[in-house]
Amino acid sequence: MATPQQITNAYDTIRYVRGLTDHLSAAFQGEFIPHEKICIDECMVPYKGPLKCKQYMKMKPVKWGIKIDIHVDWETGYCYRFMVYAGKIRVPEPLADLGKLGYTITLLTQGMENKGHRLTIDMSYKSPTLVDHLARVGIGYCVDVRRRDSREVLKDFLSTTVVKDYNEQMNGVDKLDQHTIIMKRNKEYRWPMRFLMKSLEWSLRNAFILMEQDKKARSEALHKNNDMLQFRKDVCNAMIGQHRPSTQTNKKANEHKRLDCRIRHDPQVPETNNKRCNVCEEQFLRAKKDEKTTGVSYGLKSVKTAIQCSGYLQYLCIKKIKQKADGSYSHSSCWTKYHTMVENWRQLQSF
Predict the structure, then answer these.
(1) Would you say 114 and 33 are in contact if contact means Cβ atoms under 8 Å apart?
(2) b/e code 195-206 from CB counts within 10 Å (16+ = b)
(3) CA distances from 303 to 233, 314, 333, 351 (A)
(4) Which of 161, 264, 311, 318 has its CA 20 to 30 A from that of 115?
(5) In the chain, count of helices (H) and strands (E)?
(6) Which segments constitute the PiggyBac transposable element-derived protein domain (predicted)?
(7) 106-113 long-range CB contacts below 8 Å, 24 or more apart?
(8) Phi first, then psi: what are they for 290, rounded to 5°?
């Protein structure tokens, strides 16, 4: 017989990603301490397929999708906590006066009471009861309101400091969306995969912010090219390194023709010599990139050569045959690698 917990999980519309949301939300909170100014707003994961908790928000750039309420630190743009809309929720009896949106705000600000935080949200969360509740727990509250009259009143006046601060503080979630945007194409992706992609974007952005905060705390100079794009590349290089999966294609690759022993590959010395070896140059560039991410130095250098392959007009160096300690001879010449190995840039001793 099914337990009450199993029955609850069966009716959870986001049960496929519930474990991921709980884990990420807890991990984000454990690695960062928010500053004074915080903001809460909605963001959308684009999806128009069948889903019970799918929402339509006409004021958002992405109108159809999965709605997520995000708690963001305004100063850094760090995603501190988030809640995925999974359908109607039951508000506990002590907080019934706050309503569902007010209850969502209390969940997103849980654990931040009496710490001097100032919360900025848009008018979709406005509620006098919520203002009183947050004031009792020591959280400042700023929200925009509109006239009840629907008539438009046009009047020129100077913007106040409150309006300026509100517009700046509400950009926290918008900036996060700019760095973690998911394109609306790839319709074959189901909603759990789309949410997973969004979660990876949040994780990358938060990791980048933590790295920047750590460098500032240690008074290290930030490199001018140390942007979000370069950070993504460094993470990918650290994860896959110098390895890549073997791909199978129906068409025969042209580059593998250099491995065909039936084609003549004679060495020649052209008039324009003293060029860099193709294999050594590739090894040097890959080792230099890997050294930035792993910190391991391979001691490789780019070698110049005057010998060229007549078949593919590639400059290749021919090294001396060295005798190893066991009496065998080393045949690690770039000429041999280029004509016998698919990934000729690999070094069996280092990579």
Answers:
(1) no
(2) beebbebbbbbb
(3) 27, 14, 12, 19
(4) 161
(5) 10, 12
(6) 8-150
(7) 106/133, 107/83, 108/40, 108/69, 108/71, 108/81, 108/82, 108/83, 109/38, 109/40, 109/71, 109/134, 109/139, 111/29, 112/34, 112/38, 112/139, 113/137, 113/138, 113/139
(8) -70, -30
Residues 6+ apart with CB under 8 A from 100: 88, 89, 91
Radius of gyration for the alpha carbons in the chain, expressed in angstroms and rounded? 29
User: 277 is written with which tokens?
Assistant: 């070896």
Q: Are 182 and 46 in contact (CB under 8 A)?
A: yes
**Which residue's structure tokens are 């394109």?**
183
pTM above 0.70, yes or no: no
Neighbours of 319 (CB within 10 A): 16
Tens of pLDDT, residues 129-140: 887 888 888 888
d(CA 173, CA 38): 10
Place of tokens 């931040």: 112
Encode pLDDT of 231-267 as tens digits: 888 888 777 765 665 555 544 445 566 666 666 777 7
Q: What is the pLDDT of residues 275-329, one digit of tens each?
A: 888 888 888 888 877 776 666 666 677 778 878 887 777 888 877 766 666 666 6
* C-beta atoms surrounding 339 within 10 Å: 20
8 A C-beta contact, residue 92 and residue 74: no
Q: How many residues does the chain have?
A: 351
Q: What is the reported pLDDT for 3?
A: 39
Could you tell me which residues come within 8 angstroms of residue 61 by beta carbon, excluding any fewer than 6 positions away?
A: none
Which is more confident, 211 or 97? 211
Asked if residues 64 and 54 have their Cβ atoms less than 8 Å apart, the reply is yes
Q: Strands 118-121, 37-46: parallel, antiparallel or unpaired by DSSP?
A: parallel
Report whether 218 contacts 228 (CB < 8 A): no
β-bridge mates for residue 56, sequence order: 64
Distance CA 248, CA 342 (A): 13
- Per the listing, tokens 């300026």 go with 164
